[in-house]
Amino acid sequence: MSKKPDFKKYGFIPQRQPGLLLMRLRNRAGNITAADLCKVAELAERFGTGKVHVTIRQGMEIPGVKEEQFEEARQAVLAAGLLPAVCGLRIRPVVACPGTNTCPYGLVNTEALAARLDAEFVGRDLPAKTKFAVSGCANACTKPQAHDIGFRGAAEPVVDHELCVKCGACVKRCPAQAMAIDNETLAIDYDQCLACGVCVRLCPKQALKTGRVGYHIFAGGKGGRYPNDAALIATFVAEEEVIPYLEAILAVYQELADKGQRLSMVMARHGAAAIAAQVEKVAAAAE
């Protein structure tokens, strides 16, 4: 009997029914054109049951593909210009919110970052499956803290005391209760601040300006049977510095992880602070 292909490497998952596969497709930042939706429908009719399931990670899967049609179906996906998903011990498709493209709360261009992550990292072999999520603000709709590596948009508020009239609007509306008027001066507790941008948007005198803008980076999160919250290991990382910093995280992970160990297990064994310090060292050496 010939050895079966590595279905998961190409985004095909064996179903519970013998001989059948789920054909998974990915997109970039959760976006797909109407034309591509029509192509997905054609694939579902040609190779599957005519149904398409939308996954919680913004992808789609077509059930009922026969194993003997695997290569034909895989080539049909590529010929249609669609993006196959990847599974197994490698970097999975990226989840992202709309960010500044459409969301009124977005602080960063999440779609641009997600596109780079997809092009440069998705499918890379690693010790275990590794999931990325990109969120445009502190609302964290894509749950970056629940992913192996998460990126959350952040904008630092800075007070222009000459313009501030101490009206207290920002104090009342701050989601983190990080602002206070102390001795008739507006003060920000940056340890408590979410860098969410709410205060800058609502200040009636434009006395709150945006300082540093970038991504807070989380590492070591996961869901599943044994969920774990990620640790915040870097703040206000500029967009152009995200990719080199991510490479440093992955280099440290590959050095320390055994096969099958998620990043959360590595961080639990060595400590989040030690991992963060090692990442900083690797990132600095690469500059």
Question: What does this molecule look like?
Answer:
- There is one protein chain.
- The protein is of the alpha+beta class and 287 residues long.
- It has two domains: 78 residues, Alpha-Beta Plaits; 192 residues, Sulfite Reductase Hemoprotein, domain 1 (2-Layer Sandwich).
- Helices cover 30% and strands 23% of the residues.
- It is built from eight helices and twelve strands.
- Strands 1, 2, 3, 4 and 5 form a five-stranded antiparallel sheet that branches.
- Strand 6, helix 3 and strand 7 form a beta-alpha-beta unit.
- Helix 6 crosses helix 8.
- The longest helix is centred in the C-terminal third of the chain and has 18 residues.
- It is globular and about 80 Å long.
Biggest β-sheet description? 5 strands, antiparallel
The number of helical segments is 8
Rg (C-alpha, Å): 22 Å
Low-confidence stretches: none
CA-based shape: globular
The CATH homology group name of the largest domain: Sulfite Reductase Hemoprotein, domain 1
CATH architecture of the largest domain: 2-Layer Sandwich
Estimate the helix proportion, in percent.
25-40%
Distance N to C terminus: 51 Å
Mean pLDDT across residues? 96
CATH hierarchy, class of the largest domain:
Alpha Beta
| Number of DSSP-assigned strands | 12
Structural class: alpha+beta
At the third CATH level, what is the topology name of the largest domain?
Answer: Sulfite Reductase Hemoprotein, domain 1
- Domain unit count: 2
- Percent of residues in beta strands: 15-25%
